Amino acid sequence: MTIQTKFAITRSEIAGVPVAELAEQYGTPTFVYDAEIIRQRIEQLRSFDVIRYAQKANSNLSVLKLMREQGVVVDAVSAGEILRAEAAGYQATGEPHSIVYTADIFDRVSLDMVCEKHIHCNVGSPDMIDQIGQRMPGSEITLRINPGFGHGHSQKTNTGGPQSKHGIWHDQLEDCLQRADHFGVQVTGLHMHIGSGTDFEHLSQVCDAMKAAVQTVGRTVKVISAGGGLPTPYKAQDSHLDIPRYFELWDATRRELQEEFGHAFQLEIEPGRFLTAESGYLISEIRAIKQMGENLFYLVDAGFNNLARPIMYGAYHPMSICHREGAASERTQNVIVGGPLCESGDIFTQQEGGFVEARELPVAGIGDYLIIECAGAYGFVMASNYNSKPFAAEVLVDSGQSKLVRRRQELADIFADEQV
Ligand code: LLP
Fold it and tell me: What pTM, to 2 d.p., does this model score?
């Protein structure tokens, strides 16, 4: 029986376009993004002064262009992401900073690039202050602070606390200010991001830590960033974050700071997942169905080379079936869903630690489509060419029209950079 949850287990269309049409036109596996869902998520965050998209979640140029057209600025964590943002039409500088480089190191290429292009830097290690200070004395920077605590949907996405490599440890601020003074560098912003896919309780603890950090740095601070980390629903019982309540907490913090310092503070938010996760679908085709002891497997043509979240974090993604012909089957069965790779961990239905688990999905046949949902964040961007599999195609659907926004990689391109 089809379970009528928010995540139905049968699906015939994505953003108004039939799944079968998308699969036939673009092949499988293919990522499909629904532009309207991204716009809706942006609208939910409009109360923040600045929405800065953490493009690491999905940096397809068309997604970045859509963000830019909606007035969303970007975060870049590498020289490659800076160039991507420019290719999508972002200027290197602007007010608010249209691109901010956020990282815990400058590799040599990124240091050269931020200096040449005058990209604003959000520095996550004290050494970075010296490195930018030597090259660009008198510049303005933001400090990314590790407040001493963190939380994420997995230990691997927790970016705060002493086990994390991220940010400047909260009680080393004085030392950092001295380093900055030495080069005439001004700290104009403070930033905290405690983890990805965290929850309201943990997110809300950041406000007090931010207030304390601003008080330590003083009146040069004009921008505070709440970071990203906003959770999105992947399971039927998950709910959306209460954004108005979250904004209210940050706005209250901002108002207190404004009163104390007598100047305006700009409030930024920096989500990745929240803006794109729910917009994305990975369409795959079922290529083999087999019984292994008591377990039934659907083997599809997408693997962890396309979507690494299940093998990396035991992440749960909703799934649905689209029958190639005829109506959806009413009958369901418990199945394990795996991919084509020559590695036993290539399973989409697994818990953290690699334990496979069965999922109740419609009875399906070879050639039917299996759609892995909520795959718009940390999907394609974490793909690899493992097993010499090509990168999937990416398609954007807007107003009922689908458009190829990244062609499927040619097989020969996989080894095009190699030499014998
Ligand atoms: N800002 C900073 C400084 C970050 O490090 C991150 C994520 C974000 C913003 C955006 O976080 P979000 O709003 O998307 O939670 N691959 C993992 C997520 C790693 C996130 C890394 N940093 C996953 O698939 O869950």
Answer: 0.96
